[in-house]
Here is the input.
Amino acid sequence: MPRSELEISVQLEKLSILDEDGSVDEELLPELDADFQRAVHRTMLLSRRFDERLLTLQKQGRIGTFAPAIGQEAAQIGAAAVLGEQDWMVPSYRDSAASIWRGTPLSGLILYDAGWNEGAAPPEGQRDLPIAVPVASQIPHAPGLAYAAKLRESDEIAMTFFGDGATSEGDFHEAINFAAVHKLPVIFACQNNQYAISTPLDLQTASNTLAQKAVAYGIPGIRVDGNDFFAVHVAFSEAAERARQGEGPTLIEALTYRLSVHTTADDPSVYRDDEEVEYWQKKEPIARLQKFLIERDVISEADVEKLEEQIAEQIEDAWEEAQQKMESSNEIETIFEYILDESPPYVNQQAEQFLSQQQSSGSEAATSQAGSSNEKEDADKGGKNG
Here is the structure.
């Protein structure tokens, strides 16, 4: 047979609407309610200030290591905002901005970062999976949820967040292939912040974009300016509509930048220079959106100042609430809960043994403390009599 060209259907676009200087493509600008735009701006700003406070708390030793979302707020909230209450969100470890938009309390996120695993539990009825730390391990869960939704013939969709590093893992490819074959209602939300911890994108893939990986699986792919809320929201709205109409999954690459550390155990100055960070600082999402909203009279400078005060109070209240929970609770038995739907006998046996040992240790400690107090009282009496 002679050589011939293969015909491959390619659907790839690059989308940007709002520039870093505040200028906008009016034809592409979506019609969004002013209240909705204010809510988006507030949540983005809340996420930023919350991360900044957590960085301080971590340095003080009050919480453990965590992964800030600073610089990626538009990529997360622009995506999560297309989901309804019936839809599923499957986050990774850096998706606090999306979680806040979905209704996860700040105090819960603080508890999780302080080492309280139950802090990762979404509020009752909120269709979010818990935070997943192992890279890409959460991605297959979204097609699973979407497969169930398709079997039930519901209009639910699933969205999973992951970073550029996750596209180098097998879980990503298995999940996207399964979703494509079965035309599942899934949105694969890749936040390309250009570093997998310290590994730059060009050492992960030879592809010019991550969006083009969609071509191999026969699904639509698009790259958007991840620091442009409007571009992100438009791309994800279109993907959500396709999913609800039974047209299958979409891979969206949101090109963004991590302005802070990978985690608080990381020193990014080792692998990237100040000039690069300054370049991306000029493109950061909150200032860009805020400038646009002020110019359109959606908000004012005075509104922003008032909002900063309200957010500071909200974060302080959340910290106090989390502190009270940590100081008052001794529910250590929760380490045996939420692992399996029905705990097998050996887990129940381990729990009983562990709690029994804890109670014995507590009784011994109380007896020892009482003995020390009696000895001190006797010594005091002896000193007075002497």
